[in-house]
Structure formats: C-alpha cells, structure tokens
Amino acid sequence: MSTTDDFLSRLAGRTVLVVGDLMLDHFVVGSVDRISPEAPVPVVRFAREEYRLGGAANVAANIQALGGRAEVVGLVGDDREAAQLGDELERSGAGTSGVVRDGSRCTTRKTRVVTNRNQQVARIDYEGDAEADGTVAAALVAQIDRLASAADAILVSDYLKGTISAGVASAAIAAAKRRGIPVTIDPKVPHSGYYAGATLVTPNHHEAEAVTHMRIRSDDDVATCARRVRELIGCENVLITRGEHGMWLHTPGGDTMLSAEAREVSDVTGAGDTVIAALTLALAAGASLQDAARLANRAAGIVVGKFGPATVSLQELAL
C-alpha cells in the first residue's frame, strides 16, 4: 500500500470508539535568563500558556485530523478542567456523549513549564489514578455498549489513570467481538492481563521488555519478544514500537519490520497516540495489518517533528 489519495479517502467517515484515560495538557511557556537566589532552579518569566488534548483525548483528536470520526468513552472529574477538556474535544470534532463524570476524582491534567525553545523545566501532575469501580465502572461499560453499535473499530488507550479496569477492558473487547470489528490496545504493563482477545496490542520496546523480562538488542530479540508478548497477553497480534529503530509487527503468519521514517525529531510526547490512532483508523477502513502499520509508521515519523501532543493531517500523510 502507498499513501495515495484513493486509500486515504477511505479513512473518511470511519468511526472509532476510543475508550481510555482522558487528559488535559497545560503548557506554561516563558523565558529563562537567571537562576533563583532562593534555590538552584531557573526562574521562568511567564510569556503565555496553552492547553492541548492528551492521552485518549489526543488519540481522538488524531483520528479526527485523519478524517475519521472519534467517539470517546472516559472519565473526568466535576471541575473546571473537565469543562475545558470537553470544549477542546468538541473543537476537534470528537463525540463526547460517552464521557463519564466522577466527582470523587479530579480531571487528569499535566502542567509543563517550558521555555520558548521548548525545553521542559518542570512538570506537575494533577490526577487520581484509582481504577473505576461500582457505579462509575458500570457507567463506562454502558457507554461502551451503547456507542459500539455504530463503530467500525474500538481502541483502548490505557495510561493507568483509572478508566481502564479489567471489567472495562473486557467490555470493550467483547463489544468488538460481537460486532466483528477490530479492537486495538495501547497498553500499560501492570494491566497486561486485561487485554486477552484483542486484535492488536502496541507496546513500546520498554513495555515489551517489562512484560517478557527480556532485553531487546537485535532483530532476533524483538522477534522473540513480540511472539512472547502475544503468548503472555493472549492477543492476536503485536506491534512493538522501537523509536529510532522503527516498528516490528508480529502476526501468526509472520513478522514485518518497518524502518523509522522520522525526518527530524523534536518531541516524542504523544507519538504513541498518533501511531494507534492511524493504525486503528486504517483497520476500520479495511486495511491489512501490514498496510495499517505502514501508515502508522509514516504518521509517527511526522508527529515526532512537532512539539508536545500533536496531530497529523491527511494532507501531511499524502506528501
């Protein structure tokens, strides 16, 4: 497959149900020209601030930017940040009717203090990461069941911030099986037992090493590691993202190595969101796993040239 206008046009209108941890990324930007006399830390002279979508919300924004339709299921608090995150999601075009409010937790927000040259000085995380249970978990499952009926694929974006419990992950996978559609997982190691039955799991190489207790030093290592990840998790296929070494797709029918396509690396924040968004949307449009991985690899090569959580457009992929 090549990223032709014909193929890319098939992404338009495909609906992906995104289930995962919604985050608001807050950037405080300023200049640094001195060290504080009170402590050995830089003094940042405030210039501006901006907000971006992070986590599963960034995944949804990437799907929208690629011409797809994202419906979102996730947790927010009952706070000002929840309203802002909702506004940003709606601005991206994503559907927000599946977002569940939980007054016992705060909306996940990462505040980064950065210089005008995009150098990070500090980060403050506001979060409650207890797994959803009781009525909150039941509400998430109900939204998954409701929205899955119109989905062409389901995507689980797990950041260990509370949305993805064993029950929520199981509900997403079961809903996809009932519909006969693919379900993809951007995983976290502590939840590796939650993803059995998924169509595809996309760990980075550090996560793959942690799950298997292996070290990846060569192509032979990554091939063995990917096979072991599939066996341990009980998923159908595995895509290991390897940074500057590209990606490795393992299926029962064989392995595919994809070389990295980055033109210039500025920031890898959110690159995994772009990978799974592009890959899942391509699967929703009927692409093979190999072709979907190639599209995702190309998208990753573009997004790492941007600062912070970012999206890739159809126009950029077509170049």
Strand content: 25-35%
The CATH superfamily turns out to be: Ribokinase
Which stretches are poorly predicted, pLDDT < 50 over at least 5 residues? Answer: none
CATH fold group: UDP-N-acetylmuramoyl-L-alanine:D-glutamate ligase
- Please state the average pLDDT score: 92
**Number of helical stretches of at least 4 residues:** 10
Entry keywords:
319 residues; UDP-N-acetylmuramoyl-L-alanine:D-glutamate ligase
Tell me what you see in this structure:
With 319 residues, the protein is an alpha/beta fold. It has a single domain (5-23, 54-108, 128-318), classed as UDP-N-acetylmuramoyl-L-alanine:D-glutamate ligase. It is built from 10 helices and 13 strands. The chain has helices at 5-9, 56-65, 80-92, 134-147, 166-179, 205-212, 219-233, 271-284, 289-303, 314-318, and strands at 15-20, 22-35, 42-55, 69-76, 95-101, 108-115, 120-126, 153-157, 183-186, 200-201, 237-241, 247-251, 254-258. It has a 9-stranded mixed beta sheet, with helices on both faces. Strands 3-2-6-7 form a 4-stranded mixed beta sheet. Strand 12 (247-251) and strand 13 (254-258) form a beta hairpin. The radius of gyration is 19 Å and the shape is globular. It starts with a helix and ends with a helix. The model has no long low-confidence stretch (mean pLDDT 92).
